[in-house]
Design a protein that fits this description.
Chain lengths: 300, 799
């Protein structure tokens, strides 16, 4: 089962032109700062937005499992009873209750993608599959990529590359562009903050580069994780060793937007209490300079 | 490499002179100027009844031009004011005579204040008011209208544009720069000489009109000469530097408007005299508009540059002086309902920049870019500006325009000539006339220099549904304002409800048209515009006035407001009452009647579980298309009295706020008194799928059938951070236009900024935002309108 948790139109930061971005649910990584924590688990999850809740108890009354109670802290779900049937989502007037992760037939997604075609045509845009980790759903992803290819839509896949090399190569042959997230060159640090080491990612990156694939590297710059000169220098060295036509890195400033989502999920943001912060402009400029010295273009 | 956004470079005016003039124009408070009314009243007392009306009007204009104070400000290069000083606004008692109470209100109200001294109020009460009692155009109209019209009008079913200003929409073509008034006088004399009194029953009327036009020519020449006299006199005591300028000004004023201009400077001054003449003669709605100014000025610009008598900076300085002149002319003050529906100092000049030439090719030239820079450097309330983007318009021009939009002044707005030329041709204009046309006021199309396209008023479309849901009764005023179409609780299907709605719609449109046709005649009879008629083809050729079928094309528009609200309301009824049967019709009507009291879950359910317009959703969009097509059917082609017909228009200005005030809650979950949706924009907050989905929805309307649609979009500044984002904005615009869009405009300002500006108005004195088809200072807007802007969906970066 491949669940999608969001479809975003007029996506202007997920590759060239105006795009539509499809978010797959499920990711092998669990980055502490993740913007879309509902994309980590590949199962359906319930999101509850406290400030939207008007306390009308419609959900409590209609829950077939009697899993919900209205308390002073809003509606509380007894997760041991909840079967994620979606009845509460259906009746909730304000959409305070939402199920994250829906499954539609492939035609539905193609239809949504087709809606954005006029904008893609004018802007050189296309579709971007992201997540979560779309490669976790490679079977469905490959079908979707094929359908999009048939109608001439430019395809980008936003991935961690944390997947088996043969899957990476299959996807490579069905898309025009990869957006690859690079978190840290130090495998221990990588493991500490994302849950997995980085060797597989780096070797996959080399494989697609050597196969002549087109890709853009995206680095979330986080002071306290990877925004140090040593890591940036190592990243630049590694990237400049790749055969790579585009030679473009996008630096994304750390943002704590994930906090909000964790609240909805009822989970805790950064439970370990790591100290993160966004790089200031000067640091950003210094990092950019390191890449530029290696003739790698930098975008913000 | 730019980490900070590159858009925040300081854009300063081109010269110190412009800095000073701008500051003055920004800071002066609008005032009422009773001089025009005094001259006119004295003239009427002496002369009314002695002359045929067109001649009386022309002589009145002559009298004003002869007697009014002449103003030439320090530093000015372009000269002439309607009032006796900048931002002094004349009154027009022959149309609506303000009472002492009106004047006191205008003098003391918090917003859109017009200062006037106690002494002037006393003079007005003594000299002006008594004479006009019973003689004004407004009284003529209100004494005539039928009772059912009055009830509907007072209930807010529609508004009436012509009850206190003259019918408007006067945009000019390039004639102004090809003919001097002496040339026109010759043509008129020739016309009079060839009148056929033997065979043409209208020959006498034509002679009177033509003679009046000729007097108007003399009046405007005299007005210019008086500026020349003053400039020469001022030169005697001026610094040597300024004396040279004043002498140049004098020379120019002696040459134009008597003759056609020869230089860039003369061309602008020529237009300005024509402009002043028009807005002094009468106070037509939507001011007066030079139309495609960049195209008109380009030949002068290139010639002067080649001749070495003009530099690019000098041209920009003159353009800046012109902009400031426009800003010095606030709209004449309105009162009553009309003030509610349009509360602004803005008089709606809308400069058309770019676009296509009459042969269909790209009209962008160097003057277009100079104008864009001027907009950015001055960022004043007026003039309104728009860029016109055809498929043949270069990307560079659109990009430069979008960079100005990114600054967040709410302008320029963006129009699509490829669609509006089709609109004009569909209405019956020749292809060339259509291409020389454009958009004026907010978004209204017209054949510039050849058409009187008169806005007659707004139609409150969601309220028609409200009345339908109450079997012809307005639930707010409790008056019967519609017809009996049955108790909707007995309707078996959505189609039955919709048919009832259509019957009400046709009834109300007919009621409005009937009165508009009467008003048309009143203007033709009592308020001919003999100076304006000089500039609109074919008034001279026909010997007929602008208000009396003189123009080549004669249109009346009815502006339909609230497409988003009506669509969403119908969708809600269709889905929740007739299809899902979640609520009964009775529950729905009761909820509206009680403002969803004790029914907040129901209201929230409707807001969150109904297909709404603006999301590229086929269910809702099909309803919108149906309503739009039916509005067109109800209005299109109804004859007016000037040989033309009524057409559909879709603008709202600020009327959606007033219309919302007179309505109870609506089935889409909108609360009582809240603004209805503006123009053809989605309802506030209803569009949740981003701007591309919005323009897809709008693209489904066959916009060629209207005389203009209006789409507001509000963008977070963060959505336009990078130059790449600006490129994507232009691609969004290009796509909308490829889908058949007429117009789009952007507010680039965050909610936080707006809320902050409400809290600390003094720190945001120059915060301009897009309101409807124009920008206004946020702090000059009333609370309702501010809320309206804040409630608009804010398109932002989603994570």
């Amino acid at each position: 089962m491949s669940l999608i948790f969001d479809i975003k139109r007029y996506a202007i930061n997920d590759g060239p032109g105006i795009r539509i971005t499809i978010f797959f649910k499920g990711c092998p990584l669990s980055c502490v700062w993740c913007h879309n924590p509902e994309g980590i688990s590949s199962d359906k999850e319930k999101l509850y937005t406290r400030k939207k809740c008007i306390g009308c108890k419609m959900c409590v009354k209609s829950c077939p499992q009697h899993a919900l109670t209205l308390t002073a802290d809003g509606v509380v779900t007894d997760k041991s009873r909840c079967i994620l049937c979606g009845k509460c989502e259906e009746v909730c007037p304000t959409k305070a209750m939402e199920i994250s992760g829906h499954e539609y037939p492939i035609d539905y997604y193609v239809e949504q993608i087709e809606k954005e075609i006029p904008f893609m045509d004018k802007s050189g845009g296309g579709v971007t599959f992201c997540g979560g980790e779309p490669l976790m759903h490679h079977e469905f992803l490959l079908q979707l990529l094929e359908r999009c290819g048939n109608i001439g839509v430019h395809r980008a896949v936003d991935t961690t590359l944390y997947a088996r090399p043969e899957i990476v190569m299959q996807v490579r042959n069905s898309c025009e562009l990869f957006l690859v997230d690079l978190k840290s060159m130090d495998s221990d640090i990588h493991k500490k903050f994302t849950g997995v080491p980085n060797e597989l990612i780096l070797s996959n990156l080399r494989i697609i580069a050597e196969s002549g694939a087109d890709f853009i590297i995206r680095i979330p710059l986080i002071v306290g994780v990877n925004a140090d000169e040593d890591n940036i220098r190592k990243s630049a060295d590694f990237l400049s060793s790749l055969p790579w036509q585009r030679r473009t890195v996008e630096l994304l400033k750390y943002h704590d937007i994930g906090k909000n989502k964790h609240e909805k999920l009822g989970t805790q943001y950064n439970p370990q209490g790591y100290s993160f912060s966004a790089p200031d402009d000067e640091l950003l400029r210094r990092c950019a300079g390191i890449f530029e010295a290696k003739e790698i273009r930098v975008k913000f | 490499m730019n980490i900070k956004k590159s858009s925040n470079e300081q854009h300063v005016p081109v010269s110190e002179r412009v800095v000073r003039l701008r500051k003055q124009s920004f800071e002066i408070e609008p005032s009422l100027d009773i001089e025009r009314a005094l001259i006119e009243t004295a003239f009427y007392k002496e002369n009314e009844g002695k002359y045929p009306i067109p001649i009386l009007r022309a002589m009145n204009f002559m009298e004003i031009c002869r007697k009014k104070s002449i103003y030439i400000g320090e530093d000015e290069l372009i000269v002439g004011e309607r009032g006796s000083k900048p931002k002094a606004v004349s009154t027009f008692p022959e149309l609506t005579c303000h009472s002492v109470e009106d004047l006191n209100v205008l003098n003391t109200r918090e917003l859109q204040r017009y200062t006037i001294s106690r002494e002037d109020i006393d003079t007005y009460a003594r000299e002006v008011i008594p004479y006009w009692k019973g003689r004004t155009q407004r009284e003529r109209i209100f004494n005539h209208v039928p009772q059912e019209w009055k009830k509907a009008y007072e209930a807010g079913m529609f508004t009436e544009f012509m009850e206190q200003r003259a019918a408007g929409h006067t945009a000019l073509d390039g004639k102004v720069y090809r003919y001097g008034l002496l040339d026109l006088k010759k043509i008129i004399e020739d016309k009079i000489a060839h009148l056929d009194f033997l065979n043409d029953p209208d020959a006498t009327d034509k002679q009177e009109e033509l003679q009046a036009m000729s007097i108007s020519c003399d009046a405007a020449i005299l007005f210019a000469e008086r500026h020349a006299d003053l400039a020469e006199k001022m030169a005697e005591t001026a610094t040597p530097e300024r004396a040279i300028e004043l002498k140049q000004i004098a020379q120019i004023c002696r040459f134009v408007p008597a003759h056609a201009p020869r230089t860039f400077w003369e061309a602008i001054q020529m237009y300005w005299f024509v402009h002043l003449g028009t807005i002094t003669e009468l106070n037509g709605w939507d001011s007066m508009n030079p139309g495609h100014l960049d195209q008109h000025l380009a030949p002068f610009y290139y010639k002067d540059i080649a001749d070495g008598i003009l530099t690019r900076d000098k041209a920009k300085e003159l353009m800046s002086c012109f902009f400031i002149k426009v800003n010095n002319q606030p709209a004449p003050p309105k009162v009553g309902i009309t003030a509610k529906e349009s509360g602004t100092y803005n008089d709606f000049m809308n400069l058309n920049i770019g676009g296509v030439k009459s042969d269909g090719s790209n009209g962008v030239n160097e003057v277009s870019y100079i104008m864009l820079e001027t907009i950015e450097e001055l960022h004043l309330l007026q003039p309104g500006t728009s860029i016109h983007i055809s498929v043949c318009t270069p990307d560079r021009f659109l990009t430069e325009g979008c960079k100005v939009i990114r600054q967040g002044y709410g302008y320029p707005s963006i129009f699509n000539p490829d669609v509006y030329v089709q609109e004009l041709v569909r209405q019956g204009k020749s292809l060339t006339d259509a291409r020389e046309g454009g958009c004026s006021g907010c978004i209204e199309v017209g054949a510039f220099g050849k058409e009187a396209y008169i806005l007659t008023g707004y139609l409150n479309v969601p309220k028609i549904l409200e009345v339908t849901l109450h079997n012809g009764i307005d639930p707010v005023s409790k008056q019967k304002v519609g017809i009996e179409t049955g108790d909707p609780r007995n309707f078996k299907s959505f189609d039955e409800l919709y048919d009832a709605f259509l019957k009400q719609l046709h009834y109300l449109v007919d009621l409005k048209v009937r009165v508009n046709n009467y008003i048309d005649r009143m203007f033709a009879k009592y308020a001919p515009a003999t100076f304006l008629s000089l500039w609109i083809d074919d008034c001279i050729a026909k010997g007929r006035d602008y208000y009396n079928a003189g123009p080549r094309y004669n249109t009346n528009y009815i502006q339909c407001t609230g497409l988003g609200t009506i669509t969403d309301s119908l969708c809600s009824l269709k889905k929740h009452v007739f299809e899902d049967k979640t609520y009964t019709m009775d529950e729905m009507i009761k909820a509206c009647d009680t403002n969803f009291e004790n029914a907040e879950p129901m209201r929230q359910f409707i807001l969150n579980h109904t297909p709404f317009f603006g999301n590229d959703d086929s269910y809702a969009d099909a309803v919108a298309v149906k309503v739009y097509d039916d509005l067109y059917d109800a209005i299109e082609g109804k004859p007016n009295t000037r040989g033309g017909v009524f057409h559909l228009n879709m603008l709202s200005t600020t009327c959606h706020v007033y219309f919302g005030k007179v309505m109870e809650a609506t089935p889409n979950g909108r609360l009582a008194g809240r603004a209805i949706s503006d123009g053809t924009s989605p309802s506030h907050g209803a569009d949740t799928h981003g701007p591309s989905a919005v323009v897809k929805s709008l693209g489904k309307l066959d916009q060629v059938k209207s005389g203009g649609t209006l789409l507001n979009q509000r963008f977070m500044p963060s959505l336009l951070k990078k130059d790449d984002d600006v490129a994507k904005l232009s691609q969004l615009v290009r796509t909308y236009f490829a889908l058949g869009g007429h117009h789009i405009q952007f507010n680039v300002v965050g909610t936080e900024t707006l809320l902050e500006a409400q809290k600390c108005p003094e720190e945001y004195r120059d915060l301009l935002v897009r309101v409807a088809g124009y920008s206004d200072y946020f702090n000059d807007m009333n609370l309702d309108l501010q809320t309206d802007v804040i409630m608009r969906t804010e398109q932002q970066e989603l994570f």
